[in-house]
Amino acid sequence: MFLTGGVHAEGDPAKGKRAFAQCVACHSIDEGKHRVGPSLHAIMGKPAGAAEGYDYSPAMRDSGLTWDDATMAEFLAKPRDKIAGTKMAFAGIRDDKRMADIIAYLHTLSAD
Ligand code: HEC
C-alpha cells in the first residue's frame, strides 16, 4: 500500500530540493563526488551500490535492488528495514508528501 507507481508524478521537485537539505550532510549530487555517503548523481534507475569509487557496506552492494520509485520509497522510509546492515545512519522519512517530493527531485538528477 505504501507509495507505489504514482510517487513520481505527484511529487514536487522544487519542494524535494528543499527537503534534500536533510541529505546533503552525507550526499553530494555531483557525479563521482562522495561524502560520508555516495554521490546521488543520476541515482534513479541505477542498481544499488554501484557508484564508482565508493566503499559500500556489503549489505548495500549485494542488495540486488534497482532504484525505482517503489524501492527508493521503501528504503528512505526505514533504511535499515529495507537493507539490514546498511551503513546509512538515517532514521527515515515518515511523511508521504515529503517522500514523493524528494523522489521527484532525485529524478531530476539524471540526464534521461
Ligand atoms: C548520516 C549520513 C546520511 C544521511 C543523512 C543520508 N544518507 Fe543516504 N547514505 C549514507 C551512506 C553512508 C550510504 C551508503 C550505505 C551503505 O553502503 O550501506 C547511503 C546510501 C544511500 C543511497 C544508495 C546509493 C547507491 O549508490 O545505491 C541512497 C539512494 C541514499 N543514501 C539516499 C539518501 C537520501 C535521499 C537522503 C535524505 C533523505 C539520505 N540518503 C540521507 C549516508 C546518509
Automatic annotation (TrEMBL):
Keyword tags: Electron transport, Heme, Iron, Metal-binding, Transport
All copies of domain Cytochrome c, residue ranges: 11-110
Pfam family, one: Cytochrom_C
Gene3D superfamilies, sorted: Cytochrome c-like domain (1.10.760.10)
KW Magnesium (keyword) present: no
UniProt-listed InterPro entries: Cyt_c-like_dom, Cyt_c-like_dom_sf, Cyt_c_1A/1B
Name by which UniProt lists this protein: Cytochrome c family protein
Lineage: Bacteria, Pseudomonadati, Pseudomonadota, Alphaproteobacteria, Hyphomicrobiales
